[in-house]
Amino acid sequence: MRTLGRGGMATVYLAEQQSVQREVALKVMSPLLASDEQFGERFLREARIIAKLSHPHVVQVHDVGMVGNQHYIAMEYVPGGPVMDRSGTPRPPAFALRVASQIASALDYAGERGIVHRDIKPDNILLREDGNAVLTDFGIAHASDASRMTRTGTIVGTPHYMSPEQARGQKLDARADLYSLGVVLYELLVGRVPYQAADSLAIGIMHITSPLPRLPDGLAAYQPLLDRMLAKDPAQRFQRGHAVVAAIQQLQQEVMEGRPTVAVPQIEVAPDAVATQDEPTLGRIDEVLRTPSRPRRAIATSGRRWRGVLVLLVLVLLAGSLLYAFQDSLRQRLPQTRMNAMLFEAAQALEQGHLSRADGQGARELYLAVLAQDPDSQTARQGLMEVGRRLLQRAREALAQGDPAPTQALLAQAEGLVLPSADLAELQRQLHALQGQEDTLLELIGQAREAAAAGQLDGGGDSAIALYRQALAADPGNAVAAAGLREVLSQLLAQAHRALELDNIELAAQRIERVAAVDPAHLGLPEAHAALAQARQLRASHADTRLEEADALLARGQLRPPQQPNALDIYQAVLAQDPNHARAREGVRAVASALLAQAGRRIDDYHFEDAGELIAAARTLAPELMAVAATAQRMEDVRERRTQMLASRPVTETDASLETLLQRADTAAAAGNFLVPPGESAYDLYRAVLRQQPDHAQARAGLAGLPDRILVRFEAAMTGNRLGAARDALEAMGVIAPTDSRLLPARQRLARSWLAYASERLGAGEIARAADAFDQARELDPSNTDLPAIQARLEHARGG
Q1: Does residue 469 contact residue 441 with C-beta atoms inside 8 Å?
Q2: CB atoms within 10 A of CB 57
Q3: DSSP state, residue 5
Q4: Are 588 and 575 in contact (CB under 8 A)?
Q5: Nearest 5°: phi and psi at 737?
Q6: Which of 469, 613, 642, 668 could pair covalently with 682 via S-S, beta carbons 3.0-4.6 A apart?
Q7: Residues with catalytic annotation?
Q8: How high is the pLDDT of residue 749?
C-alpha cells in the first residue's frame, strides 16, 4: 500500500494480507543482497528469532517465506511509530517509565530463551494504537542455539546506545540490552542521548570511560534507577529484565506516594558468588536483647537455701565419680562429636557451593577429614560423591568456555574422589585436545605478533592478518586475537593516511578497502573514508585545472611530443591517476582525431609515409575510433589510384586542363562527394588544381566553400531524419575543417538525435539497434548528460 521505511538490508511496506483482510508490515530483503547467502540467512534468522518470542511487547510474525529470489517477513503492523520522535522533545516520566518497564519485560522473556537483541534504540521500539510499546527489528540479534552470523570482537549495533562491552567488541549477554534500554530511558526523560561526539569511535570511548550521566534536578528521583541500568561494569547492573520491572514499579509507587526515593534493590547474586562466611554468628543481637529474662523466685527462708547448697554438693560429687568410672567410654565419644560438627560444616559448604578451598574449609577437604578419622562414614562418602559430581559439572562448563586452566584445576580437585573413571578419562581427553588447541592458538598469535612487528601486515598466509584470522577461525571468542587483528587493521589505516599525505590515492584506497573487507565495523573506517573522499575531491579539482590547460593546447595544435607543452602528456598524466576519468579519455580521443586530420592532409599531398605514422599514432591512442580505419583505407585507395595514374597516365594532373579539374571538383561537391572516392572527391580535385596553380582563386573559393556545402548536406539529412548521412557529412567536416566552430554544435545535435532514436528502439524492443544508436551518440558527444539514463535502460533490457 505504501513504503514505511527503507534500510541498507530491506524495505518495509504497509501491505494487506488479503486472506484475512488485515494490515501487515511487509519486510522485503533488497534484491541486490539476494545472491549473498549470508544476508539471506541473517534475514530469515530474524524471523525465526521473533517467532520464538510470544510476548505482548514483542512484534508478532504472521508469515515468512521466499518468492523467486526475494525473502520476506510479514509482521504485525504497529501504527504508532517510534517511541521517540525526531524533534527530541522529552516525554513525560510516567510514559518513559511505562515504556522502559514493558521493554524490560520483553527483554527478560527473550533473555530466558538465550536471545540478545544487541540494537535497543528508540527506532526499534514502536507504539501500538493503545499506547503500549513493542520491541522490533531483531536483525542483528544473537540466539544461543543458532549459528553465529557475526564474530566475537565484531562491533554491531548503534554507537549512541552501545554498552561498554559492546563498544569493546566483547561477548554480550542480556545485561548489554538493559544498558541500551537505560540509554533509551535517559533520552525519553531528557530529550537527547547521554553521550554525544563527532564520530562513533569517540562515542564508544565515552560509553567506556565517561562518568554516568546526571538527570536534571527535576528528575533526580529517577537517578538511582538510571545509575544501576547504566553501570559500566555488567556485574553492577540489573542482571535480569524482571529486576528492572520491579525497580520501576517500586519507584512509581514511591513517587506517587510522595516519599523520598530509596536506593534501588541490591544486585541479585548467584549461589556460587555468595561471600564466604569464615566466622560463626550468634544471631541477631537485638532479638536477644528484646527477650525478657525469667523472674527470680525469692527463697522463703535461709534454711531452704542451705539445703539446696548441700544437695548441689552431693550431685557434683556423684557426677565426678561417674566421669571417673566411665572416662574411657566418654573419651571415645568425644571425637564422634567433632566429626558430626565437620559433617555439618561440610554440608553447609556444599550447599553454598564451596566445593574445595585452600584453607581446608571446602566441602571436599572437610569430608576427607571425616573419612581420615572414620573411613566407614557413609555420610562422608556420599558427600564426596556429590562434591565430585559437581566438580565434574564445573569442569565441563569451564571446558565449554574454552578455559583449560580452570578445567585442569577442577579435575585435580576431583582426583581421588569416588567418580566414574570413564567420565574422568573423557574430560581428560577433551582437556588435552583443548590444551593442544590452546598451544596452537598461542603459536598462531605469537607468529602474528612477530609478523606485525616485522611490518608484514597483509598479503600471503604468513601475514599478521592471515594468522590472526586463523586464530579467530579456531576460537571466535579469543579476545587477544581479536584485539591483535584490530590493531593490525589500525596500522593499515595509518598507512592509508600516510599514502594520502603523499597523494597516493590508489594505495590508500587499497588499504581502506582491505580493512573494510576484513572488519566492516572497524571504528577507524569512517574517518578513513572521509579522508579518501576529500583527497579524491582535491585531485579532481586539480585535474580540472590541468585539463583546461590541455584543451587550450589541443586548440592551438600542440598535440603530442616532442612539442612541449602538449595536450597528450597532460591527458595521459590525469589518466595515470584516474584511469576512468571521462574528460581525460575524451581528450585523448580528440588528440587522435586531430592526428587523423593531419594524416588526411598528408594523404592529399601524397606524403604517405608521414600519413601512415600519424594513423598509427591515432590507432594507438584510440583504436575504437571508426575514423582510424576509414583514414587508413583512404590512404591505401589514394596510394593505389596514384600508382595506377602514374602507370597508365590516362588523365594526369599535368596534361589535364584546369577547367576540366574544376568542373569535376564542382560536380563532386554538388553530388556530396566531399572526400570519396579518393582522387575524384571535391576535396582532392580542388587541391589538385591548387598544386598546379596555388593562387587559383576559383579553386581556393571552392575549397573554402566545402564546409558550407557539407553543413547544407548535414541539415538536409537531419531534416529527412537520415542520421547515417548526417554522420557521414560530419566525418567529412572533421577531416576538411576540424577547427570549424560549427562542428561541435552539429555533433552535439546529431548525438541527441541518435539518443532519441535509441530510446525509440528500446521502446519497440529492438535492443541491437538501440545499442548501435547509443554507441553513435556516445562517440559524437561523450559528455551528453542523457547517456547514463539510456545506458541503464540498455543494461536493464539486456538483463544486466
Answers
A1: no
A2: 20
A3: E
A4: yes
A5: -140, 70
A6: 668
A7: 119
A8: 94
